[in-house]
Amino acid sequence: MSTHESKKTQQTVKLGATGPEVFPLGLGCMGMSGMYGATDDAESIRTIQAAIDRGVTLIDTGDFYGMGHNELLVGRAIAGRRDKVQLSVKFGALRGPDGQWYGNDTRPAAVKNFISYSLTRLGVDYLDIYRPARLDPAVPIEDTIGAIADLVKAGYVRHIGLSEVGVETIRRAHRVHPIVDLQIEYSLASRGPEAEIFPVLNELGISATLYGVFSRGLLTGSKPQGPKDFRAHLPRFTGTNREKNEEVVNAFHRFAQERDMTPGQLAVAWVLARQPAFVPVVGAKTIAQLEDSLGALARPLSKDDLTALDALVKISGERYNPAQMKHLDSEHR
């Protein structure tokens, strides 16, 4: 084993008490399927493969990203590299051919139906982590987790995860089968999980994979690219919130520049420093964005930096619109 390989192997984070060892940053692939404007499949595939070459192991997707497009893309990128990656897949969201959202379906039969399509699109025999994307209010979480537990016994799934659920749901799910991680939005702009959710994860031996680290590009200065861009309809990117947040983001950028960091590196470094036992999942669409995020691993922040950023960054607006927030189990207190 070379020195480089040895260092890479040692630099891992364990997902929960029973989960796999993963590289300290994961790659989220949603943005490669049109959620944030135009994409390039060839560049997306090169980015996934570059991430794998750099040691990234956790690749996160969802069967409803681009209505299957994202899984097909990931499948092409990991062909011949399956042994180097851990696939995290979300399921359950229902979408029409026009892209409309129609709620969630996590009935046991639906769970087993969804995974059969995911395995085929990804070109694999099993998934490392399988998780419902949202809580289905019509189905007890015990039934959904029980169905995934059946898939674990059958060898189609290695570990079970959750996404955007609250404390009660986490406890109920964990009683049915060990949960390795909760996927939830967390960034300098979205710190809600700190109060109640993270303490329960620590108590139960569950990790977290943290998405939205850049607050959907807000912290890096990215702006919606037209009405089809998901962010054009989010509170933080519209109206007076947008104007207030631009001032905060400009100050954030100056803070990064003073430390010879990019805004993206500062956003990732903040999460790594604040939650060292958890794994940020970065939504890089290009090799340049990927390399930028990986640069944060070599630029740790001090306690003074964290204190200064807490005072500096006060983001206006919720992360979703009111109707979407209402349906997030993780937001229920």
From the structure above, extract its key features.
Aldo-Keto_reductase, 333 residues, NAD(P)_OxRdtase_dom_sf, NADP_OxRdtase_dom, disordered N terminus, 12 strands, oxidoreductase, alpha/beta
Number of helices: 12
CATH architecture: Alpha-Beta Barrel
The CATH H-level superfamily is NADP-dependent oxidoreductase domain
Widest sheet, order of strands: 3-4-5-8-9-10-11-12
Q: By helix and strand content, what is the structural category? A: alpha/beta
Domain NADP-dependent oxidoreductase: 24-313
Protein name: Aldo/keto reductase
Keywords: Oxidoreductase
InterPro entries: Aldo-Keto_reductase, NAD(P)_OxRdtase_dom_sf, NADP_OxRdtase_dom
How would you describe the overall organization of this protein?
This protein has 333 residues and is α/β, with parallel strands linked by helices. The protein has a single domain (20-331), classed as TIM Barrel (Alpha-Beta Barrel), CATH 3.20.20.100. It is built from 12 helices and 12 strands. The protein has helices at residues 3-10, 41-53, 69-78, 108-122, 141-153, 167-176, 197-204, 239-258, 263-274, 287-294, 303-312, 322-326, and strands spanning 13-14, 21-22, 26-28, 58-62, 86-91, 93-95, 101-104, 127-132, 157-163, 179-185, 207-211, 279-282. The strands form 3 sheets. An 8-stranded parallel beta barrel has the order 3-4-5-8-9-10-11-12, surrounded by 6 helices. The protein has a two-stranded antiparallel ribbon with strand order 1-2. Helix 3 (69-78) links the parallel strand 4 and strand 5. Helix 6 (167-176) runs parallel beside helix 7 (197-204). The longest helix is centred in the last third of the chain and has 20 residues, at 239-258. The radius of gyration is 19 Å and the shape is globular. It starts with a helix and ends in a 7-residue tail after the last helix. The model is unreliable at 1-10 (pLDDT under 50).
